[in-house]
Amino acid sequence: MKPLFTSARRNAALTLLATLLTAPAALAADASCPLWAESNTAAYQLGDVVSYNGSTYTALQSHTPFVGTNWNPALVASLWQAGGACSVAPTCDKPGSVALVVDSAFATPLAAELVRLAADIQAEQNVCVHQLAITPNSSAPLVKARLKALAPKLRGAILIGDIPAVQEGDASVDGASYPALLSDAYYEVLSDAFWNDPDGNGIFNRSADVDGNGQRGLRYDLSSLARTRDIWTGRLQPPAALGIAERISLLRSYLDRNHAYRTGSKHYGSGMVYFNSVGHNTLSSDYEIDQATNLADAQAFYADTGLFAAPASTGLNVIWNNDMAMQAANWFSAINQPKEYAYINIHGAANGQEFSPTVYMGSDAYRNNPANALLVDMASCNNGMFSAADYLAGYALFYGQALAVRANTDLVFQVGRPGAGLDHRLLAAGYTLGDARRITNPIDITTLFGDPTLRLRQPTTAATLLTLSSSEMQFPDLSTSSLPAAPSQTVTLTNTSSQVMRVYRAEGQYTAWNGQGTLNRSIMQDNGYSQGIDPFFLLDLRNADALYATLQPGQSVPIKVYFVANFANAKPGQYSWQQQFYTDSPAMPLITVKAVQRVL
Description:
Blueprint: H1 7-22, E1 49-52, E2 55-59, E3 80-82, E4 96-103, H2 104-107, H3 111-125, E5 127-134, H4 140-148, E6 154-160, E7 166-173, E8 176-178, E9 181-183, H5 185-188, E10 203-205, E11 207-208, E12 218-219, E13 232-236, H6 244-262, E14 269-276, H7 291-305, H8 312-315, E15 316-318, H9 324-335, E16 339-345, E17 347-349, E18 352-356, E19 359-362, H10 364-368, E20 375-379, H11 392-398, E21 404-408, H12 422-428, H13 433-440, E22 446-450, E23 466-468, E24 472-474, E25 488-495, E26 501-505, E27 512-513, E28 518-519, E29 523-524, E30 530-531, E31 536-539, H14 541-544, E32 550-551, E33 556-564, E34 573-583, E35 590-599
Parallel strand pairs: 4-5, 4-6, 6-13, 7-10, 14-15, 14-16, 16-20, 20-21, 24-35
Antiparallel strand pairs: 1-2, 2-3, 7-8, 7-9, 11-12, 12-28, 17-18, 18-19, 21-22, 23-25, 25-33, 26-32, 26-34, 27-34, 29-30, 31-33, 34-35
Helix pairs in contact: 1-3, 3-6, 12-13
């Protein structure tokens, strides 16, 4: 990447941010903070900051400080944490902001590197950069409260060090219990409508009984318009199994190469490494494919990313060997090359990868065979489980020259033939890693390790080439007495360019109800559960499939959407939905159609 800011601007940013980023957690009183006071009526909310006896304190939980209880901040550690600021400093009038959420154990030894990172981001992205110092007794709700205080300008947060995380997933279906998931989506979906823990066990529920009938009628964790990410996050967390000195050293090295890449002194060779281990690992249960099929899949993946101009014959390295141990060795040899992108689909655990029933590599394999690709995608189980002291994605990110690793904190089921997605198209158009993550709204267990403000390509500034007759379909109100019904609306997509274009339908989203979640309502089954999702929006695939064909200059195609209510028990409220399409034009990689239906 070329430098996007001058040394003068960088020096100004360094001066502006030096006080904020090098100071320890604030204890001196902030003149803008209200004085702490007892009250029988007024309550303090989680994240509120007050001044008391010349120092500032941040509320750790919502509470009412009743008169006479003397629950003052200096005395009651369960209610207050020392430090905090009532006004964000320094003053910044940029259109957006980014938060550096920094573990206090790393803030002081990395102060200079954090100042430099903040300056790089501020100048390159035209945003304000704020540091939030996190002390060891901070909780995830407290961190979220401080992030929400930066809204609506907040674009994202970089979590540096051991930043607390939450688990979601209290679920039992037909007697089978499902494990809780470690997820940073808690920080990205700022609305609290999706984060509920009614039994107080510390795990946020995936579903709720909204009708009081003992049935799970609402899903919180399904991708929907209401639950799209408000911000992005990325984690910079060296494995905790290492000593603190080594962890600080690894973070310093990462921030050094991050800066070198941004300023144009570090480069990665254009190209991609592709390895579908699940398709070739001697396990017949994984539906083994042959080498020709694997090569065709890899070539299609390479082309569909839109990232590479070079033909696959020179830019694509496909891993395949009938000797399983040699195949694993080939993978480590390939990712040791400074390519831009590496993809692996493989069975895994928090601290290892299963290349075959006889070849298993632990986290130390990435320590001894460092990953030097800029971006590494690990489509495997648990490699991103950062609560594990020796989690594999951490070794892949910090021991080589990688700048980002995308991995999962829990089980995934991607057996078969992988392909490129909308996130790759967005990266090819110059979107940052974070914005590509936020827009595509990945499943909650997918975690971005690394700096989300980085780009693989410079932003595209060409003119718009596609137009929609309307970006939102407003369906006329329906009454519950008129159901079941299937009203429809249509918008038109037109190619307004002078060249042939292709438009692809991305994976659809679920229909959201009242901005809370997705209703799981249809016919009651013999086991007492309702099955299916109803009502819902449905894209007419007879029209949508036409979008896989080329659109000639001036050609239009209808996009027809139905609101389907198969049963008469539709719940009153507002239903919302969106469908994304991506194109082969870097000038307009993403098109979004929304729909809204109110049921009275």
